[in-house]
Write a structure and sequence with these properties.
Length: about 400
Amino acid sequence: MISSSYSRCVGLLVLSLGCGAILSGCSTLGDWMRFNGPNGQQVVEVQNTAPDLPIQVVEVTDKVARRVFASQKRNLFSETLGNKAPVGYTVGRGDTIEVSIWEAPPAALFGSSGLDPNTGAATTQVTTFPEQMVSSEGTINIPFAGAVPAAGMSPQQIEAEVVRRLTDKAHQPQVLVRIKQNASSKVTIVGEVQTSLRMPLTAGGERLLDALAAAGGVRQPVDLVMLQVTRGDQNQALPLGTIIRDQKQNIVLQPGDVITALFQPLSLTTMGATGKNQEVKFEAQGITLAQALARSGGLDGNTADARAVFIFRFEDVKALDWPSPPVTTPEGKVPVIYRVNMKDPVGFFVAQNFPMNNKDVLYVAQSPTVEFQKFMAYIFQAVFIMRTLTSL
């Protein structure tokens, strides 16, 4: 008798385990069993159920998507830093220059003249002064001309000024100014480049990509690099890929510019009823919601609620026109849950315009029918076990 009862209990245990294995063996039901995230209604009602949390729930329409996109639009270099043609090289403080002067015969102020033994014509020698650095006052010294202003002037302007000062002292003077060392007209390239350096600028007008090439290029993939240009009190950044594709952004550099190559490993997290729950990396130029869904495997056809696609984000206060001033975090951000209805065909157009941000969480809620199917699966399992028990 004891042996028979023991055998029956063991049989029931094995049967129960077998039923569980059969049910869990169904991939769809297995997904239902494992999924425990909030449904769409619970996410939408978070403002009411958690009044202490300053969370805004926003239904994404085409107007909202375009407003968010406009708030994140980066200023182009051509718009903010200008794209003027090169104006030529100007001498600066700290530059080293060389000045040479010729005089028409008979020369007496700087050199001596003589006769050419072949032609018998009068000749003169050039007088080249020692190299000198432009002073902190921005001047150089020339005998009989005094302190000649040089900083901020081109070599041709300096030549003209020296000639003007020597006109009544030398006989038809001719002046040549050469830049021996460029110390003031340089740009600095740092960051994710092969070699950080200071590159001198010439009258040719070097551009942004010229400086990047001089530094040996970037050490990271092009699509993951931002180029930041600091000019005076202006500080602008653009994806390197954008600069390569749009030559208007390959701006002419100015003395003192600082170029920083920034590695931007951007990513977002996909959760819920998507094809893959994972971290999705994307390029510095950004991706849209449609691209993010595609990279995560799209919506799970068995479990997803297409009407409940959510983006969790800490948003900038200026991103939207809020009905009332929102409560912000200590960092000045607004916790926002954007909702997109992918059941509506319009949602696919909205998804193409809605930009994703770094550290966003993309969550797809479970369909309400899945909860009912899960409940019915438990019922069928219980009925099957009970019928088995009564048949023993």
